[in-house]
Amino acid sequence: MLKQAKEELQMLETQYPNRFGHLKMELKSFILLLESQQYSNNIPSCSTATTQASTSKKRKKGGSLTHEVIIEERSKCQKVEGNFKGRNRIDLVLEKAQSCLRKIQELKSSLCGS
Predict the structure, then answer these.
(1) Whole-prediction pTM
(2) How does DSSP classify residue 19?
(3) Which of 2, 10, 53, 61 could link 34 by a cystine bridge, Cβ 3.0 to 4.6 Å?
(4) Which domain of life is it from (predicted)?
(5) Could you read off the pLDDT of 84-107 as tens digits, one per residue?
(6) Torsion from C-alpha of 20, 22, 23, 24, nearest 10 degrees
């Protein structure tokens, strides 16, 4: 989908440099969103790092968890949970961008058909 969006944007910018500015901006936003999602999918998950950090800290502390370690683990989990709250917003942006892409394709087909 990312490749198709980039191709559509390039086509719009080439064929209509002074028109459809709103569609171009929506498409650029969609492309950036897809790229950021690709980037975030390549980052290792927090749960693995948290588990590893927790295990190493337990060994350093002689097998007992200190209050500081527990607080640190909770804050890491809260950060991860906070990232998922934005999922609804991301879904809305994706739907809007897909709608924009459909409009561009409809415009393209209507211009080619005329």
Answers:
(1) 0.41
(2) S
(3) 2
(4) Eukaryota
(5) 556 677 777 788 888 888 888 888
(6) 80
